[in-house]
Amino acid sequence: MRALLITNPAAARTRSVTVKAITTMLKAGGWQLDVLATGGPGDARRLAELGVEQGVDVVAVFGGDGTTMQAAAALVGTDVALGLIPGGTGNLLAGNLRLPSNPLRATAAMLRGEPRPIDLGRIIRDDGVHYFAVACGAGIDARVMVETPTLLKQKWGMMAYVATTLRLIPELRSVPFDITVDGEEFHAEAAMLLVANCGEVIPRVIRLGPGISPDDGFLDVVAMHANSFGTGVRAVWDLLRDAPGVYGRDAFVGYARGREITIRSPEGPVPVQLDGEPGGQTDFTATVVPGAIRVVMPKRG
Fold first, then answer.
1. Residue 169 counted as domain residue
2. According to the model, what pLDDT value does residue 173 have?
3. Of 28, 63, 156, 203, which has the fewest Cβ atoms less than 10 A away?
4. pLDDT digit of tens for each residue in the chain (301 aa)?
5. Which domain does 38 fall in, by range?
6. Backbone φ/ψ region at 23: left (φ over 0), alpha (ψ -120 to 50), beta
7. How many structural domains does the chain have?
């Protein structure tokens, strides 16, 4: 097996001693390995493209969701598999796929695993094509991602996001969104609007809704209505108990499913996040790409 390992030295848990241990483990498992480190924005995608050009079998990423999705974008439509070694703050994709959170256990699982296809969401912006594996969101979640300092993420991990969320709760307000799902139009008043490819916003803790899967050929829209701390708690409770909803001013949580989702905010731009990274502002159209990439996961059975 020939592989390229991309590391992100700026990620929360990617210490050099761990990189060395991962490298030793992969080589001991019989993999031919090159190791390259990112140095700035966009490097992970460029390095993954280099790996594709050189004919590797696997591009493994030791970093967070942002680094992972940069690399994944270079693998769309190729036979090169993506290997996930969690090293960032959230590691939402790895968590949704039930991969170990410990880097060395994740490496061992990758050595024993097999490539399996998953869908991605695709958004076309003026600066090119962007992909997301877990979810893109407009509203309070995007503000949390954008306004959480990198230094705090490195120091506190997920608790940095919690701290930012608590700071922003007093500003929680629903705004109007016009939503088109495969040609059918809806209106929602939402403080958070997610277009989800995976089912858990915090793996094993907060599930977005029943039946959301990264290999079903669909994207799922989740709209959370809240205008205060109390209604925010009610909306989260609806999420936790998978309460079905409908779009509208009085629904705390609404759901819809489709292959092409257009989100418009008629009262002005709203910040957007893509898998926890800043993703510009509304408006946007997200389209599912079935089986876009293959991810190394534990063998079935």
1. yes
2. 85
3. 28
4. 899 999 988 776 668 899 999 999 999 999 999 999 999 888 999 999 999 999 999 999 999 888 999 999 999 999 999 999 998 777 889 999 999 999 999 999 999 999 999 999 999 998 889 999 999 999 887 887 777 777 777 677 667 777 777 787 777 788 999 999 999 999 988 888 999 999 887 666 667 777 899 999 999 998 888 777 676 666 665 655 555 554 444 556 788 999 999 999 999 999 999 988 888 899 999 999 999 999 999 887 6
5. 2-112
6. alpha
7. 2
Contact between 153 and 166 (Cβ < 8 Å): no
Other Cβ atoms less than 10 A from the Cβ of 19: the count is 19
CATH number where 236 lies: 2.60.200.40
Cα separations (Å) of 197 from 131, 135, 217, 259, 266? 11, 6, 9, 11, 25
The reply to whether 167 and 217 lie within a common domain is: yes
Q: Is residue 159 part of a domain?
A: yes
Q: Quick count: other Cβ atoms within 10 Å of Cβ 94?
A: 26
Same domain, 165 and 260: yes
Q: Which of 138, 142, 145 has its CA nearest to residue 195?
A: 138
Angle between the 158-168 and 140-147 helix axes, to the nearest 10 degrees? 120
What are the backbone angles phi and psi of residue 23, rounded to the nearest 5°? Answer: -60, -45
CATH number where 50 lies = 3.40.50.10330
Q: Are residues 153 and 264 in the same domain?
A: yes
The answer to whether residues 150 and 270 belong to one domain is yes
Q: What is the pLDDT of residue 202?
A: 67
CA distance 80 to 77: 9
Q: Which two tokens stand for residue 225?
A: 């209505």
Nearest to 47 by CA among 57, 55, 37, 56: 37
Total-model pTM: 0.87
Q: Which two tokens stand for residue 207?
A: 């599930």
Residues 93 and 160 in one domain: no
Both 155 and 240 in one domain: the answer is yes
Q: What are phi and psi of 201, to 5 degrees?
A: -80, -30
